Every structure is written in C-alpha cells, then in structure tokens.
C-alpha cells in the first residue's frame, strides 16, 4: 500500500514537472513571437539599402518597388521611427547627400578680395573673376556678417546655385518676404510686367504679380506664347527644382505687397507711376509698360492695396558675372501656323547630339533634366536657357523664367518631353531621384505640398491646388515610362539598355557606404 502511494506521488510529481516544463517552453515561444516584430523590423539603414538596390535595378517598375521597399505592404509614411516629415526624409536620403568633390577656387562664381585690399581699391568687397589678380585670398565666403543675398551670391558654384540643406535659405526667404522695400522699378526686357525691388541692405529681387486665381486653368484657346505669367508658378518651380535635387532656380518666395506704400509711393520709375489708377470697387491697380498685357484691361490690382506676388532672388549683376544665353534646340516656333524642325523630324536628336556643345560633357543630359522639370510643371515656354560664362560649357543650366508653368492640371503636354523621347538619354542621378519620388513614402505631390507649406503665402492659400499636385504624380509616371520604353528599345536593338543612362553615379559602393540611419 505504502509502496503504491509512493509510486503514485512520484508519478504526480513527474507529471507536474513535465507540465511546468511545457508551460515554460510555451511561454518562451510566445514571448519570442511577441518581441520578434520590433527586432525584425528593418532599420532606417536597411530601408535605405533596400530602396537603393531596387532603384538601380534596370528592370525597375513602380509596382515592383512598392513591394520591394514596403516588404509586401504599402508604406505610406517616411522611414520607420524617424519622426520626420516626408520632405525631411527625402532630403536626408543618401541620394541627396552623396559625397561631392571639394570645390576649387575656380569653381566659385565670385571670388572675394582680402578685406585690406578691397578697402584700398574700392568700396565693393566682392569682385568678378576678371578683376582679380594674384592677391585673392579665402576671405569670409560664408561669413555670418554678410547679408543673406551676398551669402547666396558667394555660394554660387560651377555645379549649383546653392548647396543642399543650405543654412542660408531661411534668412534669404525671410529677407525676401519681410524686409522693407526701398525701391521698385520695372525690369526691362521680356514681354510681361515685372519689377525689380531693392532692400535696405542692397539686396534685390524680381517681382512677378498675381494675375489669375490659383485654380483657374489657362484658357484652352490661348497659344502657349500668349499665356499669362503666374506668380505661384515662379514659387512652385523653385520648390520643384529643389525637390528634384537640381538647385538651378534662384530662390523665390511669396509676399503680400502693398501696391501703394511699397510700389507707387517709392518708385522713381515715372512710366510705371503713371499707370496707377483706382478701380470701380476702390482697389488700387497698375499696368506698367510691356509688350504683353500692359493695359487697363489687364491691370494688376490690390485688394484694396494688397497684391500677391513672387519675389525671386536676383542673380549677381551681369557686370560681375556675365551670363550666356543659349537658344534651346527644341525651341517652339512661336507661331500659330509653323512647326519647328524637331516637330517634323523624329531623328532630330541625332543632329543635336553631334552639334557642340551637345556633343560633349553633360550639356545634353542637363537639357534633358530641364525638359523633365518643364514637363512635370507643364511649361511650354522654355525658348532659351542661360549659363554663367565664367564656367564655359562645363557647368549647370540656369532655369530662369518659370512664370508660364502650372497653367493646366487637367491636361499633360507630351510635346514638352520630346527631347527625352528623341534622345533617350538621362542622367543616372536624375533617374534615381525620379524613382525615389515615385515611391509612396516620398511621393512627389506630398513632398511638394510639404515644401510649399513653408512659403509665407501658404497662409493666404496653398501655392498649388490639389489638382496641380496630383498632376505632378501622373506626369512623373509618364517620365518613368518614357525612360523604360527607351531602355526596352535599346535592349531589343543591342541586347542591353545602358546607352540610355548617362552614368554620373559611378561609385555605388560609396553611395551605399554613406547610407546613414535617418536622424
Ligand atoms: N532671378 C533673376 N536674377 C537675375 N536676372 C533674372 C532673374 N530672373 C530672370 N532674369 C533675367 O530677366 C530676363 C527676363 O525675365 P523673365 O524671362 O522671367 O521675363 P519674361 O517677361 O517672362 O521674359 P520672356 O517674355 O522673354 O519670356 C531673363 O531672360 C533673365 O535674363
Ligand atoms: Mn517668360
């Protein structure tokens, strides 16, 4: 009996031990599965690596990337756990922070004189390249004591107008939108009314007034060459150019200008002053002198004195930094009946490719970059572009005059993409940027909305309507499809698609090495 009881209690103990062991095992398995998710979630670094690998894939398609990068699910926000806006996440992406070679003294647009020398010779402390002898010194290029406009001028290089994440940008925008206006005169040249405004610290800006409501579409019966210029297009173009990573448009911000105290009362331009009048509803209006739309019927009017306008930072005066103007090979005919050569000859690019300066260096792909910018914003008015003469042919193209962009959101204009269609050539870096902006977590319309919300006029109304923002996404898909078609065409001809890509990002290893966790 005792023997039986001992045996029973031993069995019970054994079963209890087995049960507790199983329970432990079960708990361990459960806790592992509970904590597994955060441990296995990709770090920002891994996400960046995934994105980059997918972006350089030659068989890239947008849908494939959604799966690749989002690990099968749609990732709507910026990289996990970053706490950043989509714009901040975009600008912190390695593609925007690639190591750049040091800028040599000859690669700056303006050289600065040592302070002593400058005082001896003249009151101006910056001089053009041709004015300077052997006494140049590395003096104060980024000094905090300089006004923002001078820091902007001194920061222009052979490769860009301003650096990525420019620490000067906020004060530059602040100056343009708030500093007292001490002078306003008409800017000569060009076809539509625009003014040059001066600030007490000698900075200058080019003003384009608001002529139509933001969501008003350009009349479909109007030819591109008689379209109005839009102040919000100048501002949005600056933001788009920066988002694309180009940095080839001078900073432009919005401002509510008092047409009486900030233009009429202070102008020394008598021709301009004479055109002021009061409208039947007591708004103050003016129309100036120019070849298009400078008449009472097309006057710009304050409400009653407040006028929305864009103010773009002026580039250094041509006497300090000469600019060269180039006619675009894909210039439109500016005629109601004539077609341009490129519209009649599908092989037109073969000729351009062998014609200087498009036969060497980056000029052709720089032009394609400009084409992509113009297609995205629907700008049909790119008849010319400019470069700084000092840098010869080895430099970026200035994307000035964007007032006729963002006129229509309901229609895309495929003819703007003709240079890309005909030449089938694109910088690797541009393609990577475009592909990045097609991902849901960096979506072009979202980063543009974010970027434009920093403009002072955002408090009046968003600079681009939602319809214009979504047109950007639609057009981006068209650009990427065009490139894919080019690659397919090339592949079917030669067995590969690499003639399409101008390889300007050669060192992927360096790029990937520089993938840093998002801050
Ligand atoms: N930010 C700037 N700084 C200095 N010069 C500028 C700036 N923006 C434009 N310009 C110069 O002023 C000229 C006229 O400006 P813009 O082209 O914007 O006016 P427009 O009336 O639209 O001209 P067009 O009718 O020829 O298209 C430009 O060709 C350019 O050389
Ligand atoms: Mn123009």
Tell me what the structure shows.
- This is Family with sequence similarity 20 member C, like.
- It is found in: Golgi apparatus.
- Its main location: Golgi.
- By secondary structure, the chain is α+β, with helices and mostly antiparallel strands.
- It has two domains: 53-93 and 319-513, no CATH class; 105-313, no CATH class.
- It is 38% helix and 10% strand.
- It is built from 18 helices and 14 strands.
- It has helices spanning 2-40, 44-56, 62-70, 86-92, 115-121, 148-154, 169-178, 231-243, 260-264, 270-273, 341-344, 348-353, 363-377, 418-423, 428-437, 444-452, 466-494, 508-513, and strands at residues 111-112, 126-127, 183-186, 195-198, 204-209, 252-258, 277-278, 284-286, 300-301, 306-313, 323-327, 384-388, 426-427, 501-502.
- The strands form five sheets. Strands 3-4-5-10-6 form a five-stranded antiparallel beta sheet, sandwiched between helices.
- Strand 7 (277-278) and strand 8 form a beta hairpin.
- The radius of gyration is 29 Å and the shape is globular.
Describe the structure concisely:
The protein is of the alpha+beta class. 38% of the residues lie in helices and 10% in strands.
């Amino acid at each position: 009996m005792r023997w039986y009881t001992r045996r029973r209690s031993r069995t019970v103990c054994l079963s209890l031990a087995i049960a507790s062991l199983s329970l432990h095992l079960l708990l361990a398995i459960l806790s592992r599965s509970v904590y597994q998710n955060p441990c296995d979630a990709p770090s920002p670094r891994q996400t960046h690596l995934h994105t980059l690998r997918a972006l350089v894939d030659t068989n890239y398609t947008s849908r494939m990337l959604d799966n690749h990068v989002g690990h099968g699910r749609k990732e709507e926000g910026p990289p996990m756990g970053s706490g950043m806006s989509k714009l901040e996440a975009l600008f912190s992406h390695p593609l925007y922070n690639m190591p750049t070679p040091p800028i040599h003294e000859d690669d700056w647009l303006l050289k600065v004189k040592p302070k002593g020398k400058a005082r001896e010779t003249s009151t101006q402390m910056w001089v053009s390249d041709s004015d300077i002898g052997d006494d140049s010194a590395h003096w104060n290029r980024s000094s905090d004591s300089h006004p923002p406009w001078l820091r902007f001028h001194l920061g222009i290089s052979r490769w860009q107008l301003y650096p990525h994440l420019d620490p000067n940008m906020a004060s530059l925008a602040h100056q343009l939108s708030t500093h007292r206006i001490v002078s306003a005169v008409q800017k000569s040249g060009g076809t539509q009314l625009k003014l040059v405004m001066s600030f007490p610290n000698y900075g200058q800006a080019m003003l384009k007034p608001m002529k139509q409501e933001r969501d008003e579409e350009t009349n479909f019966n109007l030819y591109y060459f008689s379209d109005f210029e839009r102040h919000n297009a100048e501002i949005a173009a600056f933001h788009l150019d920066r988002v694309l990573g180009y940095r080839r448009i001078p900073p432009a911000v919005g401002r509510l200008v008092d047409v009486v105290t900030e233009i009429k009362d202070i102008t020394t331009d008598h021709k301009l002053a004479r055109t002021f009048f009061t409208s039947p509803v007591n708004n103050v209006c003016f129309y100036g002198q120019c070849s298009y739309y400078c008449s009472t019927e097309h006057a710009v009017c304050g409400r009653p004195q407040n006028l929305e306008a864009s103010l773009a930072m002026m580039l250094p005066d041509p006497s300090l930094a000469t600019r060269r103007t180039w006619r675009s090979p894909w210039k439109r005919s500016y005629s109601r009946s004539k077609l341009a050569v490129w519209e009649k000859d599908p092989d037109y690019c073969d000729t351009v490719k062998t014609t200087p300066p498009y036969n060497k260096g980056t000029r052709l792909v720089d032009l394609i970059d400009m084409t992509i910018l113009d297609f995205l914003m629907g700008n049909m008015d790119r008849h010319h572009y400019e470069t700084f003469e000092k840098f010869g042919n080895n430099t970026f193209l200035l994307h000035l005059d964007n007032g006729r962009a963002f006129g229509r959101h309901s229609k895309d204009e495929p003819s703007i993409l003709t240079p890309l269609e005909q030449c089938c050539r694109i910088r690797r870096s541009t393609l990577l940027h475009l592909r990045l902006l097609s991902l849901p977590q960096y979506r072009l319309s979202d980063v543009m909305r974010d970027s434009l919300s920093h403009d002072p006029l955002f408090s009046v109304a968003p600079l681009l309507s939602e319809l214009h923002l979504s047109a950007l996404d639609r057009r981006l898909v068209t650009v990427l499809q065009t490139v894919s078609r080019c690659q397919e065409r090339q592949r079917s001809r030669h067995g590969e698609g690499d003639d399409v890509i101008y390889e300007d990002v050669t060192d992927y290893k360096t790029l990937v090495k520089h993938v840093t966790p998002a801050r």
